[in-house]
Amino acid sequence: MESVLLAVGTKKGLFVGRRRRSRPDADWEFTGPHFPMQAVYSVCIDTRGSRPRLLAGADSSHWGPSVFRSDDLGAHWHEPSRPAVKFPEYTNTSLVRVWQLHPAGPAAPAVVYAGTEPGALFRSDDGGETFDLVRSLWDHPQREHWGAGYGGQAVHTVVTDPRSADTLMVAVSSGGAYRSSDGGASWEPCNTGVKAEFLPDHYPEFGQCVHKIAQDPTDPDRLFLQNHGGVYRTDDGGAQWSEIGKGLPADFGFPIATHPRRGGVAYVFPVNDGSDRYAPEYHCRVYRTDDAGANWTALGGGLPTEHHYGIVLRDALRTDDNDPAGVYFGTRNGEVYASADEGDSWRLVAWHLPDVLCVRAAVVA
């Protein structure tokens, strides 16, 4: 029987929820916390194989960071005897945490990428069991000039092209976005048009504080970007970005997500910039564009309308692959909201959790 799986990574463990696919009104059944006392900054639901595989990037204050895997939807977890992600000795660097676990497209069915802090990219060719450093990005001459955002310097976003295993993009906080068209052998910055208002040159070649990038499902060359001040779109794979934040109550925010099938549909959770950093008017609202950023619609049905102080971090707003698509977000005050109708209405499905750091959802058997 098919169900929707919802993985919620928090400051103190991972929670895994399921509900029947055919019953969007059914209650979610959660297990967890898995990895209690460990911060789960990244989680992946890889549905490319004969059975789903879950990967979780957990961070223990005592034992350090690790990548766990489960092939039975979280009932049992395996931690490798040797670290799955580890910096080679020549780098004179140690892993702080894994910020991103991303399965590559169908052209590379066993490949999983890991983005880390400090800012680096690792590649696995065995479904996430072992990873190797992508040395070309680590050795890039601009890397030593990357800054560190408030959350630290990290490769926090990986985007792969479903048409070709050789095309991928990463986002670095705060180094900007980089693109490779040769499978990661070389990298070029792709930040033209994205503003870095905190730098003397507001439009530098690199150094932007990119918060998240999401790919359009119908045109892989179209991507949406939430920046530290500004929402952007590119239609040419990152060669040129254009601002699309007009119509939003604030153009600052952390996450951005796209619809799994409908082109031009993207979701953001705006927050005020500056010392406030709460949702505008303290209203909990997701905004959706159905026309690639020309217009935005507030989606608040079922969400708190006042005195709401939770914000959504960069990896805590996602869609699933259901039809109609589900949309999910978790807040820093431990709430998880779900929509079974593409954002038109919402309901609270988990509460009183630790800070939500990331969410992922997918249809599984």
Automatic annotation (TrEMBL):
UniProt superkingdom: Bacteria
Family matches, as CDD domains: Sialidase_non-viral
Could you tell me which Gene3D superfamilies the record lists for this protein? YVTN repeat-like/Quinoprotein amine dehydrogenase
SUPFAM superfamilies referenced in this protein's UniProt entry, alphabetically: Oligoxyloglucan reducing end-specific cellobiohydrolase
InterPro entries per the UniProt record, alphabetical: WD40/YVTN_repeat-like_dom_sf, Xyloglucanase_GH74
Name the PANTHER family for this protein. EXO-ALPHA-SIALIDASE, XYLOGLUCANASE (EUROFUNG)
Provide the protein name: Exo-alpha-sialidase
- Which organism was this protein described from? Streptantibioticus ferralitis
Q: What is the lineage of its organism?
A: Bacteria, Bacillati, Actinomycetota, Actinomycetes, Kitasatosporales
